Amino acid sequence: MEGDVTIEVSYSTINYKDGLAMTGAAPVVRTWPLVPGIDFVGTVTKSEHADWKAGDQVVLNGWGVGETHFGGYAGRARVKGDWLVRLPDAISPERAMAIGTAGYTSMLSVLGLERQGVKPDDGDILVTGAAGGVGSVAIALLAKLGYRVIASTGRASEADYLKALGAADIIDRNELSEPGRPLGKERWAGAVDAVGSHTLANVLSMTKYGGAVTACGLAQGMDLPASVAPFILRGVQLIGIDSVMAPKARRQEAWDRLAKDLDLAKLDAMTTKIGLADVATFAPQILAGQVRGRVVVDVNA
Known about the structure:
The protein is α/β, with parallel strands linked by helices. It is built from nine helices and 13 strands. It has helices at residues 16-23, 93-115, 133-144, 159-165, 197-205, 229-233, 248-261, 264-269, 279-287; strands at residues 5-13, 39-47, 57-61, 76-79, 85-86, 125-127, 149-153, 167-172, 188-193, 207-215, 237-240, 271-275, 294-298.
């Protein structure tokens, strides 16, 4: 396809959006036929772009790849050089896709909380959809940075897993998933939400004065049946997190921070590795909330 850099792809991954694309559960794919896969990591083999040369290790997340442009579920990719980020030396290609868009989005969310001034001393941080990809990486990042993390999950069986990642407390997602009050008891200083709908509305209603919530997903729904009360009575900030079209400087900042702030042993513990032929099996499972943590796809296996 159109592009000025050719990459030998080594690994890709499965994110929630990939599950939507593979199953057709939502109109993610908008050009047919298409190679799915919104992430990949690999080695530049040919470049007509000034920033890249043969041998460079690069990562791609988003930019419509796997939606309108051939994606990562292939041995090679041709893309625009402006879409690429240099792989930090501290992160191997396999671990880069263990991170993937989900982990990169988690880091963008943490950066959003930091920019809003939310500090570990301010109080707990809630992570919804905690056993999923975004949630798992967010817990590991926040815990290493000194935050006390509350994990919200519908999978009680994952309690030990979430505590091993750094969660101090675990609550059942049912506490947040039903219609709630416009303003609830203040419980956390901030949150990373990958769920949306009533969950996000309830998270906002229970955020402390001056707190902040990042919104990066819609596992429960795209709607937001919320009140203005948290915003005008408690000064709560709702921060939208876009991983697809984020500017390159912010992307590189996120990946550099991941190299510094993510416990790679915890990343390995949350990661499953599969071959390309297994993607079709895992895609519906990730939509059903049956996939724990992250999945690396070896496109050459």
